[in-house]
Specification:
22% strand, binds zinc ion, 467 residues, 7-stranded mixed sheet, Metallo-beta-lactamase, Chain A, Rossmann fold, 2 domains
């Protein structure tokens, strides 16, 4: 069989791997490549003919794994897309959200070019796909539960193993009869961390011959010693209770927001802090919270226990989910101390922009970053300590307090990545392929593995590996 890494090779985004078993072509993930988005190469340019792909396996719903599926379908892919039930629901929401982002961008581009008589390249602002393409994609979803072996063909069996990270996220483990020879390969997708609020710990991936693993946090270590609740209690106590101010938490609507809301629920219901008003200002967050309720049985034991004793993990007296724009704007007129959770996490677009616009010059405002902010984003500029930033075409001085914690990171760190490999049967494991990481992280992870005599490859994009 042949393995080709077509995306997330020596970079983080755009996961897309092709496994060819005697002519049967399996595509594992089909994510948006943000580096392409920033360049002139379009995500439309597949290095193969979409109609040649027999089946797609989707590890989880995040856009860098799922976000190019509607393009694949639009350009002729005609097979099934296999994923877990929560992944099907969340991927649909995220792909629909992508369409809104494309359309906004296209509109913004047109406005700008009219105003300044610029000639913007049309391809950059042309939506990659539309709602109807997302619907055609969702039509192809076939859901398979965790740990239930599923026959793709007489010779290929797929099992989804839970890996934490996001509700529904799975490693894809394939057992293959390749012309009479038994072979096995696992694609980790993204690997979560232990003791993450709401989610189960990653499960051990069964022994395989080949492991294609993510490497996002290779060489890096998460902060140890403090819990998510301790950090939240400290921050809220200072920002909202001692200073009587507001706390803004930019958060990704799906996954991080639910973990955050549950942690706050635990804090307030146990009386660790007096109730502080909490606004979750994101329609996508309230919609996806329904999915977390629907797949309640997949949440961790602690969350289930909380539910049995105290009720809905994602609901409490001082919490309000904001749906429409008017209510969102009304938050500016709320003068009591409060916590505002809104997206986008990196502060590029979304309702968070309004909240920052009105609060960045407020001494009694704290902004707590709980996720990664890529270079070039407003979030990155604030974290770097810029004294003046541009929001909505205005120059604003930063008087708010900026804080950050990595405790909500949904990726395992170097140690967690190493453990994923070490849990494998070393005598059986023939090769570890590193994907989904910047070159520095991959090299650090590879060095860690080589020091323990694991055979490791940092694959080159598009190169065919004969397994
Ligand atoms: Zn992910």
């Amino acid at each position: 069989m042949k393995l080709t890494i077509h995306g997330a090779a020596r970079q983080v985004t755009g996961s897309m791997h092709l496994l060819d078993v005697a002519g049967y072509k399996i595509l594992i993930d089909c994510g948006l490549d943000y580096e392409k988005e920033r360049s002139t190469i379009s995500n439309e340019n597949f290095p193969f003919r979409p109609e040649e792909i027999d089946v797609v396996i989707l590890t989880h719903a995040h856009i860098d794994h799922s976000g190019n599926l509607p393009t694949l379908v639009r350009l002729g892919f005609n097979g099934q897309i296999l994923c877990t039930p929560p992944t099907a629901d969340l991927a649909e929401m995220l792909m629909m959200d992508s369409v809104s982002i494309f359309l906004n961008k296209a509109q913004g581009g047109r406005k700008r070019s009219r105003g300044k008589h610029h000639h913007h390249s049309n391809t950059a602002s042309q939506p990659l796909y539309l709602h109807k393409h997302v619907m055609d994609t969702v039509d192809r979803f076939v859901t398979i539960g965790f740990n239930r072996p599923f026959k793709l063909t007489g010779d290929i069996e797929l099992t989804f193993v839970p890996v934490g990270h996001l509700l529904g996220a799975a490693a894809a483990v394939l057992k293959i009869n390749d012309n009479g020879v038994e072979k096995s390969i696992a694609f980790t997708g993204d690997i979560g961390r232990k003791n993450y609020p709401v989610l189960n710990d990653p499960e051990v991936i069964p022994p395989v011959d080949y492991l294609v693993t993510e490497s996002t946090y290779g060489g890096r270590h998460h902060t140890k010693g403090k819990t998510v609740e301790e950090v939240l209690v400290d921050t809220i106590d200072k920002a909202c209770i001692k200073e009587n101010g507001r706390l803004i938490i930019p958060a990704f609507s799906i996954g991080r927001t639910q973990s955050l809301v549950y942690s706050l629920n635990k804090i307030f219901s146990s009386g660790l802090l007096p109730p502080v008003k909490v606004f979750v200002d994101s329609p996508l967050a309230s919609r996806s919270t329904q999915t977390f309720r629907k797949f309640h049985s997949l949440l961790n034991e602690e969350a289930q226990d909380f539910y049995n004793k105290k009720g809905d993990e994602f609901e409490f007296d001082n919490l309000t989910y904001i749906e429409n724009l008017k209510d969102s704007r009304d938050i500016s007129n709320y003068f009591e101390p409060c916590i505002i959770i809104s997206s986008a996490g990196m502060l590029e677009g979304g309702r968070i922009q309004d909240h920052l616009f009105y609060n960045i010059q407020n001494y009694y405002c704290t902004i707590l970053f709980i996720g990664y902010c890529a270079k070039g984003t407003l979030g990155h500029r604030l974290l770097r300590g810029d004294p003046i930033v541009h929001i909505k075409d205005r120059e604003l001085a930063v008087y708010a307090t900026i804080k950050q914690t990595d405790l909500f990171s949904a990726h395992g760190d170097h140690e967690d990545l190493m453990n994923t490999v070490k849990q494998q049967d070393k005598a059986k494991l023939k090769q570890v392929f590193l994907v989904h990481g910047d070159p520095q992280s991959m090299e650090a992870f590879a060095a860690g593995l080589e020091a323990e005599d694991y055979p490791v490859t940092i694959p080159e994009k598009g190169l065919v590996y004969e397994l």
